[in-house]
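USER: I would love a firmer grasp of how sequence relates to backbone shape in proteins. This is the protein in question:
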Amino acid sequence: MILFSQRHSPFARKAEVALLEAGVTGVEVRHLADHLRQGDEPAHPENPLNTAPLLILADGRGVFDSEEICFYIDEFSGGHLIPKDTGERQAVLTLQHLAAGLCELGADLRWELQQNEMGISIPGLRDDLIAQLDAAYDILENGPAMGKTPPDQVADIGVIALATALDWLEFRGLDRYVSPHPNLAWWVDVFRERPSMSATEYEDLSEL
């Protein structure tokens, strides 16, 4: 199998961390350019948008969208990432969706900040996005994820998604816009020490 990834993407990193946490071996990871240009040859015919992550299976089929890839990794590994119990499964997948929402809010805020520098921002949008991020951080500050995943256990997809999302927000400098959340900051620092995280650190290779 081949995983097409990008070093600056929280969604691509989530897939890479999931592979490592699930113990899936024999997957070649290829990193696409940080900023693909119009006209670049698609990484795979089934994914003409050239988005990452993209998982190419042994039979040549392509799986894209990070959640679908993580579902596949979970099944391929024998269910290491997503609990079978209905209640636990719902909690894990809800946390994954919340983490995805954090990334989307962060991307919108980053864009709005860039627009503001050019004097074409939408009035009030910056403050609204920051307030939404802060509210999500408040929910997570004392949430159940803070007590999960001892170092000797496989991380589930919910905490993987959360860790890669929060680390990306810090990587992009967006965490400075929200109020301090000491429990969350401590949790991310501890999670970063996992081999799966240290092997997949963010890096922006673009000149933009």
